Amino acid sequence: MKKILVVCLVLGLPLFLLTACADGGDSGDGDNGGGDSITLYSPETPDLTKQLAQKYEEVHGDKVNVHYAGTNVLVNQMMAEKGNPQADVWYGGGGILPFESAVDKEIITSYIPESAEDWEVIENGIKMKHQNGYYTGVELFVLGFSYNTDLVSEEEAPKTWEDLLDPKWEGKIQFPNPAASGTSTLMVLSYMMQYGEEEGWEYFQKLKDQANSIPDSGSAPTKAVAMGEAHVAVGFDFMAYEHQANGETVDFVVPDKTPILSNPMTLVKDGPNPEGGQKFMEFMLSEDAQQILADWYHIPINPDIESKTPLSVDNISNHAVELDIDWVNENYDRIRNEWNSKIK
């Protein structure tokens, strides 16, 4: 089985020398695809995807309809739509894991943007595109803990996944529902790959008992921290920094060992507007799109784009864990589907 270290140690590599360099429902008007319109499925922040769509429309003139839902909800929707696909592009899902799983489901198809054709599949440990072209990385994500700085000091904030089980956090934690959220599925799979399934299910039963809510949305727990409805939440780095930038009392901890992945995009198989979908994927690696991602506190692929996030590869690399991609492909659906029966 192949294992990859899910962090890129150096951004200034040939891989990155690019030549071109949500709370629910559709955010765009018009029908789902057809003609010059492009339909984008994405679990990423609705305002972010709306901004990306607006910039694409400004540059290219084609309409982009954005449909927002949790990653696993979108995957199930694409499965249901296989006979009549409604989406052209799928962007984002908490990293590469749901995209790896989607290959065998035959809901996505191969396309690599021109600016990524010369990338290595794995560059210094991070898988940046599928070996057969089924997805391409757009940015880097770090899974960790947000906390409310009015309720939790920097010193007492959790530093490891085991710290979340401390009795002091009982009724004060939120994390997304792994049956619905790709963010949380990543958390579960990563832990089980390190410690085994038996210990993993025991851990997550205890973590569930610590939580005051387990929402379906990957971003909802961090929002709850910002509102004081939770002290600590599991989520991605940019979620916390977005709230912080809005003046809310939120900060972020990179756990001692945690997943750090590329977050991809892909072309939906037999989508209504494949040419438009390809154009949108090219756009996502352009300076315009990469700058938008950087302004939303994401870590962009293009090293020439300066991001607002305080995180960089240099200060996160020592925290990365290994993920067994073969194991993910074999167990992704089973593990997330077993959540509701295993966790009471």
Short description:
With 344 residues, the protein is α+β, with helices and mostly antiparallel strands. The protein has helices at 46-60, 71-80, 97-105, 182-195, 197-210, 220-226, 237-245, 274-284, 287-295, 313-316, 325-342; strands at residues 3-5, 25-26, 38-42, 64-68, 89-91, 108-109, 122-123, 126-127, 136-148, 173-174, 211-213, 232-236, 250-253, 260-268, 299-300, 322-324. It has 2 domains: 11-140 and 261-310, Periplasmic binding protein-like II (D-Maltodextrin-Binding Protein, domain 2), CATH 3.40.190.10; 141-258 and 333-342, 3-Layer(aba) Sandwich (D-Maltodextrin-Binding Protein, domain 2).
SSE topology:
Layout: E1 3-5, E2 25-26, E3 38-42, H1 46-60, E4 64-68, H2 71-80, E5 89-91, H3 97-105, E6 108-109, E7 122-123, E8 126-127, E9 136-148, E10 173-174, H4 182-195, H5 197-210, E11 211-213, H6 220-226, E12 232-236, H7 237-245, E13 250-253, E14 260-268, H8 274-284, H9 287-295, E15 299-300, H10 313-316, E16 322-324, H11 325-342
Parallel strand pairs: 3-4, 3-5, 10-11, 10-12
Antiparallel strand pairs: 1-16, 2-4, 5-14, 6-14, 7-8, 9-12, 9-13, 9-14, 9-15
Helix pairs in contact: 1-9, 3-11, 4-5, 4-11
